[in-house]
Design a protein that fits this description.
- It is found in: Cell inner membrane.
- Helices cover 42% and strands 24% of the residues.
- It has 269 residues and is α/β, with parallel strands linked by helices.
- Strands 6-7-8-3-9-10 form a six-stranded mixed beta sheet, sandwiched between helices. It has a four-stranded antiparallel beta sheet with strand order 2-1-4-5.
- Helix 3 (104-118) runs parallel beside helix 6 (157-170).
- The protein is globular, with a radius of gyration of 19 Å.
């Protein structure tokens, strides 16, 4: 089976400095992979390089093949095509994905109409409105009709993240990248959004690249994991094996820190 995403010796540089070094991983349709490591280890840059979204000043080398297309060195035109169809990203802070001055229903309608056009079945008017409401319902937003006419600032953080997820789904991506999708939310809302992502990924048989520093959440969400430290892969494998029997000291220290936090939360520390 050809992988949906295949990174080979992917590196990201800023000037002469390597921020991600020779990273290789592959992800098939329907698979879920976690990318973990402490802050600054290169998780976000890996996902940005894999989708051709690196900010100016940073450059990628190596190979990143997404849905059969080489991303490294591809033109913006080619990349836009891939981003609207093969892959969508949900970021930590939903406001980055939302236009503060546009009603959220219209914001969800845009990628929906674009994707429908690409599929050769254009959507507009009442049919498009109906598709927007169905999508808001799919991400379990209450009262979709009222939601659709709201502006982002009228919604809670969790509701905004649901809108961002709806916009990602509107692209009908084969691969969903979730970059710390719940870090900005309170604990109860985090659990709800994680449950939602889990359900949607299964129902739509999407591949998931899940970026997180929350190890218990990673353990519950993905099948395989890649551990990054200062841009280098320290170990990779089945999540139960890596977490159950970590080989690298860095992975052991990440797990020990997660356990200490857990104990403190439970009042055992
Ligand atoms: N535009 C940039 N120019 C120079 N260095 C950058 C740039 N963006 C990120 N970096 C550096 O690259 C390294 C990796 O950053 P990255 O955002 O991928 O980390 P991360 O693992 O996602 O961290 P976090 O969990 O905090 O989001 C960091 O040391 C960061 O300071």
């Amino acid at each position: 089976m050809t992988a949906l995403l295949s990174l080979e010796n992917l590196s990201v540089h800023a000037g002469g400095k390597a921020l991600v070094s020779n990273l290789s991983l592959s992800l098939n349709r329907g698979e879920r992979l976690g990318l973990i490591g402490e802050s600054g280890s290169g998780k976000s840059l890996t996902s940005l390089a894999a989708t051709g979204l690196l900010p100016t000043g940073l450059s990628a080398s190596g190979s990143a093949i997404l849905a059969g297309k080489q991303v490294i060195g591809a033109s913006d035109r080619e990349l836009n095509k891939l981003r609207g169809t093969a892959v969508a990203i949900v970021f930590q802070e939903p406001l980055t994905a939302l236009d503060p001055l546009m009603r959220v229903g219209k914001q969800v309608a845009e990628p929906l109409a674009r994707r429908a056009q690409r599929d050769g079945a254009p959507l507009s008017g009442a049919a498009l409105d109906k598709a927007v409401l169905a999508l808001l319902d799919e991400v379990a937003l209450p009262d979709p009709q009222r939601m659709a006419t709201s502006y982002p600032h009228e919604l809670s953080g969790g509701q905004r993240q649901r809108i961002a997820i709806a916009m990602a789904l509107a692209c009908k991506p084969d691969l969903l990248i979730a970059d710390e999708p719940t870090t900005a939310l309170d604990v109860t809302t985090q659990a709800e959004i994680l449950g939602l992502l889990d359900r949607l990924v299964r129902e739509r048989n999407m591949a998931l690249l899940f970026i997180s520093h929350d190890l218990p959440v990673v353990a519950n969400t993905v099948e395989r994991v890649v551990v990054l430290r200062q841009g280098e892969t320290v170990e990779a494998g089945n999540v139960a094996e890596v977490f159950g029997n970590p080989r690298h000291d860095y992975t052991k220290s990440l797990l020990a820190a997660a356990r200490r936090l857990d104990d403190a939360m439970e009042g055992r520390a």
